[in-house]
């Protein structure tokens, strides 16, 4: 539905943004959701969708945290934040694990080289 002056309503913009997001057109979706947020900075749905089409990990976190500032009881935002944090912790854990393994292999190689030098 549009207003009499043919300007799209916030709901029109939301629906167009959702459609763009579902089609994978994140750039246009972000622009549409930003228009909604420019008119209504407390629009939970727009912030949630902005999180879905965010360009970076940091933006996604910020958008989800904004949803929770607006509504601390928003379970969708809470679940998404928890899933992101778990994934991030798992990634950090793997990086640390493989880093330590690489360091151990490097130390063994150095020890082997030193041992070969000492034997000669």
**Tally of strands:** 0
CATH topology: Serine Threonine Protein Phosphatase 5, Tetratricopeptide repeat
Biggest sheet layout:
none
Structural class: mainly alpha
Overview of the structural elements:
By secondary structure, the chain is mainly α. The chain has one domain: Alpha Horseshoe (Serine Threonine Protein Phosphatase 5, Tetratricopeptide repeat), CATH 1.25.40.10. Helices cover 79% and strands 0% of the residues. It is built from 5 helices and no strands. The protein has helices spanning 10-22, 26-39, 44-52, 57-70, 75-119. Helix 3 runs antiparallel to helix 4 (57-70) and helix 4 runs antiparallel to helix 5. It starts with 9 loop residues before the first helix and ends with a helix. The model has no long low-confidence stretch (mean pLDDT 89).
Q: In a few lines, what is going on in this structure?
A:
With 120 residues, the protein is mainly alpha-helical. It has a single domain (10-119), classed as Serine Threonine Protein Phosphatase 5, Tetratricopeptide repeat. It has helices at residues 10-22, 26-39, 44-52, 57-70, 75-119.
